[in-house]
Design a protein that fits this description.
The chain is of the alpha/beta class and about 260 residues long. About 45% of the residues lie in helices and about 15% in strands. It binds acetoacetyl-coenzyme A. Keywords: Fatty acid metabolism, Lipid metabolism, Lyase.
């Protein structure tokens, strides 16, 4: 069973230091079952632990990035005490706990948990055929892995409320206008565009990249004053890194830096 579960997410290591993680349950539109999310958590753990990998891209297959958490699997739970007892979906936190940056390459459906998974990544690149949305209201439930919290931070209250309370699908173009995605690219190119961005990130000092990610994320969790203090600490901490010295030295010598901790 372990190996069948393992195949639900494919991990490809590129020489550029980028890991491409492909959600691989195309017949179910990549519905995010417990097994798939366990496989994803395990592969993200491998990415964080492997010093030759600097960044990851998460992508889907065919018609979907992911059409949500697995509705049939969740329906097999009987009542509040079941889902509370097992803390259903709590293990999804592994995505946002990953220290290396993750780019979501979204083509097709990114609905419910699929939209929430994309939002738990650091940058979202959308194919022009991508469709986002939080349709849980249509199932008689609400988003359960960060949707109500991350969407409002991404697009503001009025749009977040409209999208969550109507359950309507959002086009890639609207998602870009609203600030949910960083850019929209032609259909068929989303994975390579996301990989290019991840490769650019992977070309820099990996510890510095991880500090920058941690700082930006702190902005969503703290007050402005606390966030600025946190940033100042991590900024000062870069003075403890060879790579900071090298970056500044290279600038003075008008040459390209050679990162020790790429
Ligand atoms: N869970 C389980 N199975 C799913 C699924 C999901 N979220 N989404 C799609 N599938 C399955 C379908 O049941 C179908 O399986 P069968 O072939 O065995 O019938 C297969 O994937 C193909 O799907 P469709 O035939 O429905 O494809 P379509 O092109 O006609 O429609 C769709 C596409 C509009 C995305 C439709 O599949 C759909 O509405 N899916 C559910 C979207 C949704 O409600 N997502 C939110 C889930 S709840 C959640 O995520 C909670 C949370 O916050 C964590």
């Amino acid at each position: 069973a372990a190996s069948a579960e393992d195949d639900l997410v494919l991990l490809e290591r590129r020489d550029s230091g980028v890991a491409v993680l492909t959600l691989n349950r195309p017949k179910a539109l990549n519905a995010l079952s417990d097994g798939l999310m366990r496989a994803l958590a395990e592969k993200l753990r491998q990415v964080d632990a492997d010093s030759s990998l600097k960044a990851a891209v998460i992508t889907g297959t065919g018609k979907a990035f992911a059409a949500g958490a697995d509705i049939k699997e969740m329906h097999s739970r009987e009542g509040y005490s079941d889902v509370r007892g097992e803390n259903m979906l709590a293990h999804w936190n592994s995505v946002s706990n990953t220290r290396k940056p993750i780019v979501a390459a979204v083509g097709g459906f990114a609905l419910g948990g699929g939209c929430e998974l994309a939002m738990a990544c650091d940058i979202i690149i959308a194919s022009e055929d991508a469709k986002f949305g939080q349709p849980e209201i249509k199932l008689g439930t609400i988003p359960g892995v960060g949707g109500t919290q991350r969407l409002i931070r991404a697009v503001g209250k009025s749009k977040a409320m409209e999208w969550i309370l109507t359950g309507e699908m959002i086009s890639a173009q609207e998602a870009e206008r609203a600030g949910l995605v960083s850019r929209v690219v032609p259909a068929g190119t989303v994975l390579e565009e996301a990989v290019k961005i991840a490769e650019k990130i992977a070309s820099f000092s990996s510890p510095v990249v991880q500090l920058a990610k941690e700082c930006v994320n702190a902005a969503e969790e703290t007050s402005l004053a606390e966030g600025i203090r946190f940033e100042r600490h991590l900024f000062h901490a870069t003075w403890g890194l060879d790579d900071r010295r090298e970056g500044f030295q290279a600038f003075s010598e008008k040459r390209q830096p050679t990162w020790k901790h790429r």
